[in-house]
Specification:
The protein has helices at residues 4-13, 32-62, 66-93, 105-118, 123-149, 152-179, 182-190, 196-227, 231-242, 254-267, 269-283, 296-303, 307-320. It is mainly α. It has one domain: Ribonucleotide Reductase, subunit A (Orthogonal Bundle), CATH 1.10.620. Helix 1 runs parallel beside helix 3 (66-93), helix 2 packs antiparallel against helix 5 and helix 5 packs parallel to helix 13 (307-320).
């Protein structure tokens, strides 16, 4: 991003509070099945927003630039607000009290492994997770839930949440560019090496994260998107992320290279036949999201775009599908 001060100004001016929303209306009439699904989606969404907040808090801790620190601090505030709004939306749509709602078990299992691991992950790995997560959240999940609910209360809340998420994605791409830069990779190469004990601790935390990631993604993202008949938006979010692979030095980062290798092996019929379940478990996603989704023309176009332009292009996806 060319102007971090401008982004910080947008963050400051873009603040709002749950009380700014008009909660005085009544939900539209829903079937029992729809009401249960909607309340569960918002119950899970509250925890997902807390996960994003934890990642942004960690990024705030790691960066040295004061403007970036302030931006990430505002993002932590955003995510806390989103979590509160999601909880209030769950209560708002829980008209008939059909059941007691809790976050999905796989989400509850994933949460502590995630919060443990992000403290130990490399800077670029942490940013990769938040970039994928924000794309899935903004391009796919939030809009699909809003369309599915189809109610004024959801519309006004999602409009404000989406505005915040757009700022987040812009900075996610900015940081992606930095971590792919020669400056970062040189600094990383010259940094003190972690001790054997530290590396072992990080490996254990990452293994627990990987084991719990796919059930979490399946239950909290994939199944709801199937239920809402919006799988195409999930694919679009991953397609946009795959475009980053063509940018210089992105694949020089070890974890990015690891993910690309799993995708390349999966793309081969024999690799998919013999290693498919292992590869999708390592990547943490469904088989269809392991596919290559961009043709040569799309990749060539992305190669000529800046990271800022790619971010702006990704943000347009939530309005075009």
């Amino acid at each position: 991003m060319r102007d971090l001060e401008r982004m910080l100004d947008l963050c400051t001016k873009g603040q709002w509070a749950p009380r700014d929303l008009d909660w005085s209306g009544s939900p539209r009439a829903m079937s029992a099945e729809d009401e249960v699904a909607v309340v569960q989606y918002f119950t899970n969404m509250a925890i997902i927003e807390q996960l994003a907040g934890a990642l942004f808090r960690e990024q705030e801790r790691r960066v040295s630039d004061p403007t970036l620190k302030a931006i990430f601090h505002s993002f932590v505030t955003d995510e806390a607000r989103h979590a509160e709004v999601a909880r209030r939306l769950a209560n708002y749509y829980d008209v008939n009290k059909y059941r007691t709602y809790r976050p999905s078990p796989s989400l509850e299992s994933f949460f502590p492994h995630f919060t443990d691991a992000i403290v130990l992950l490399r800077d670029d790995v942490a940013n990769l997770y938040i970039t994928v997560g924000e794309l899935v959240l903004d391009v796919a999940l939030l809009r699909s839930i809003d369309d599915y609910v189809s109610d004024p209360m959801s519309h006004q809340a999602m409009e404000l949440i989406n505005r915040d998420e757009s700022r987040h994605i812009a900075i996610d791409y900015h940081m992606f560019e930095y971590y792919a830069s020669e400056e970062y990779q040189t600094a990383r190469a010259s940094a003190p090496k972690a001790s054997l004990r530290e590396r072992a601790r990080a490996a254990r935390a990452f293994a627990k994260l990987i084991v719990s990631a796919k059930p979490f993604f399946h239950d909290v993202f994939f199944v709801p998107m199937q239920h809402m008949k919006a799988e195409h938006r999930l694919r679009e979010a991953f397609r946009r992320f795959q475009l980053l692979e063509v940018k210089p030095r992105v694949m020089d980062l070890p974890f990015n290279r690891f993910l690309q290798t799993t995708t390349n092996i999966y793309a081969h019929p024999l690799g998919r036949m013999f290693l498919g379940p292992l590869l999708t478990r390592l990547a943490g996603v469904e088989p269809e999201l392991m596919e290559r989704m961009n043709d040569a023309a799309a990749l060539e176009k992305a190669r000529g775009m800046s990271f800022e332009e790619l971010a702006e292009d990704a943000l347009q996806a939530k309005y075009s599908s």
